């Protein structure tokens, strides 16, 4: 693996686990098996490295969402909406570092980098909301529903589950790798979205 790719991979893991503010360049260098000078040579300082990590996280998430949103105009809208939910959940489960990075942001991590949400999060939320507008116009989604807030609710729930899971009866944490917990959460998420948007018919 090229040193730059190794550094970005390691930095992604550390930023996701500790946040930007809790991660030092030395920690990144040590985890990558390099010295700080080599890290700076390949990727710049911690700020530049963090921006690279967040850019890559956004690019991966955008690609997953765009593929899913394209189906909204090609399939039954109710089925397409539920497929969108599945795709988003699958992405966050397969890439737990992405929700972890954004959850750190929710806790004011890297507070001096204030434009990330405007450049990365806002466009994706807007894209989903716009893609659902035809379903609102057609009466598939109840026009009284605040669609944007419903989408935020999905984001909060999915990120929370992908990062923290749920507690079982014995107080043990069951995350996305637990099949029973994952299946239970997925069912709940579909039920919640179906009812929140007041979609017609039964769950597909």
Automatic annotation (TrEMBL):
What residues are annotated to bind DNA? 24-43
Taxon lineage: Bacteria, Bacillati, Actinomycetota, Actinomycetes, Streptosporangiales
Q: What organism does the UniProt record list as the source?
A: Nonomuraea endophytica
Q: Which InterPro entries match?
A: DNA-bd_HTH_TetR-type_CS (IPR023772), Homeodomain-like_sf (IPR009057), HTH-type_TetR-like_transc_reg (IPR050109), HTH_TetR (IPR001647), NicS_C (IPR041474), Tet_transcr_reg_TetR-rel_C_sf (IPR036271)
What protein does this entry describe?
AcrR family transcriptional regulator
* SUPFAM superfamilies per the UniProt record, alphabetical: Homeodomain-like, Tetracyclin repressor-like, C-terminal domain
What superkingdom heads the lineage?
A: Bacteria
What are the protein's GO molecular function terms? Answer: DNA-binding transcription factor activity; transcription cis-regulatory region binding
**Which keywords does UniProt give here?**
DNA-binding
HTH tetR-type domain mapped to chain residues: 1-61
């Amino acid at each position: 693996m090229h040193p730059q790719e190794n550094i970005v991979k390691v930095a992604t893991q550390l930023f996701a686990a500790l946040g930007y503010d809790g991660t030092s360049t030395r920690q990144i260098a040590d985890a990558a098996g390099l010295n700080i000078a080599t890290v700076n040579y390949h990727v710049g300082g911690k700020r530049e490295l963090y921006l690279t990590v967040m850019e890559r996280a956004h690019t991966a998430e955008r690609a997953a969402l765009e593929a899913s949103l394209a189906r909204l105009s090609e399939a039954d809208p109710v089925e397409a909406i539920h497929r969108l939910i599945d795709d988003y959940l699958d992405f966050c489960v397969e890439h737990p570092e992405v929700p972890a990075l954004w959850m750190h942001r929710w806790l004011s991590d890297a507070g001096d980098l204030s434009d990330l949400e405007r450049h990365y999060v806002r466009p994706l939320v807007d894209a989903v909301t716009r893609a659902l507008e035809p379903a609102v116009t057609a009466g598939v989604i109840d026009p009284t529903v605040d669609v944007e807030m419903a989408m935020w609710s999905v984001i909060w729930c999915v990120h929370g589950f992908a990062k923290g899971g749920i507690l079982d009866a014995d107080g043990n944490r069951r995350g996305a790798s637990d099949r029973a917990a994952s299946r239970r959460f997925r069912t709940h998420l579909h039920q919640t979205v179906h009812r929140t948007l007041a979609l017609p018919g039964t769950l597909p």
